[in-house]
């Protein structure tokens, strides 16, 4: 938020007793002092873990956040890109609406989950992966969509053209080795409306310098 991002991405998973928490991996081993699958642990067990020490001693004692906590923090401050790893669509929507964030989220996930989300609350913005030109066209026609996601595998000319022709916004992942100014500019030149980055300060400064930042 301090760097000027428009959205923050949250990876959402469900504990064994049905609590929505934030965790990228299905396994606890890489980012916490726990082990095993997150979905096989209760919320109290997950909450007892240290989710910060493996990143830096400065973050030792950090607990795994809940989706409720993240949405409460974000409300009125930043939009949220919900990467749905493992969550019931009705529970996900109920949580978003409870925090009055339904106009400030975009939901990423597999198409089956996104179809369910659209059925429950059609006004929510959903964002599937483009995958290829045929799949992209099918998803745009069947949802319909305001925005579609791309990564290094599908951010190709023919797929991009499908999205542009349908006037659907393009959100592209530029993480890891392609998280560079050269790659950001290429994405912009190819029609990207949004860029996912791990170099937030650098990208925000790059966009501001070129008059491309939204704020």
Spatially, the strands of the biggest sheet line up as 2-1-3-4-5
Radius of gyration: 18 Å
Order of helices and strands: EEHHEHEHEHEHEHEH
Number of strands: 8
Quick tags:
8 strands, 215 residues, 33% helix, alpha/beta, 5-stranded mixed sheet, globular, 3-stranded parallel sheet
Descriptive notes:
With 215 residues, this protein is of the alpha/beta class. It has a domain at 128-215. The protein contains eight helices and eight strands. The chain has a five-stranded mixed beta sheet with strand order 2-1-3-4-5, covered by helices on one side. A three-stranded parallel beta sheet has the order 6-7-8. α5 (133-142) runs parallel beside α6. The N and C termini lie close together (11 Å).
Write the layout of secondary structure elements.
Elements: E1 7-14, E2 20-22, H1 43-47, H2 67-74, E3 79-84, H3 89-98, E4 105-108, H4 111-120, E5 125-127, H5 133-142, E6 147-150, H6 157-165, E7 169-173, H7 181-189, E8 194-196, H8 200-209
Parallel strand pairs: 1-3, 3-4, 4-5, 6-7, 7-8
Antiparallel strand pairs: 1-2
Helix pairs in contact: 5-6
Summary?
With 215 residues, the chain is α/β, with parallel strands linked by helices. It has helices at 43-47, 67-74, 89-98, 111-120, 133-142, 157-165, 181-189, 200-209; strands spanning 7-14, 20-22, 79-84, 105-108, 125-127, 147-150, 169-173, 194-196. Helix 5 runs parallel beside helix 6.
């Amino acid at each position: 938020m301090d760097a000027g991002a428009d959205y923050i991405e949250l990876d959402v998973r469900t504990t064994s007793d049905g609590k929505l928490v934030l965790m990228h991996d299905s396994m606890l081993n890489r980012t916490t002092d726990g082990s095993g699958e997150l979905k096989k642990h209760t919320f109290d067990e997950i909450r007892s873990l240290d989710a910060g020490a493996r990143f830096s001693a400065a973050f030792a004692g950090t607990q795994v956040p809940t989706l409720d906590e993240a949405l409460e923090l974000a409300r009125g401050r930043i939009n949220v890109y919900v990467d749905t790893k493992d969550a019931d669509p009705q529970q996900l929507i109920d949580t978003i609406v409870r925090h009055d964030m339904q106009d400030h989220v975009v939901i990423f996930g597999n198409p089956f989950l996104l179809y369910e989300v659209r059925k429950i609350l059609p006004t929510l913005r959903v964002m599937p992966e483009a995958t290829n030109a045929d799949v992209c066209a099918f998803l745009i026609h069947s949802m319909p969509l305001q925005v579609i996601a791309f990564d290094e595998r599908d951010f190709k000319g023919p797929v991009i053209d499908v999205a542009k022709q349908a006037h659907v916004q393009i959100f592209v992942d530029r993480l890891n080795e392609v998280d560079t100014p050269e790659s950001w500019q290429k994405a912009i030149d190819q029609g990207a409306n949004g860029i996912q980055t791990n170099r937030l300060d650098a990208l925000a400064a790059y966009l501001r310098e070129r008059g491309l930042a939204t704020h």
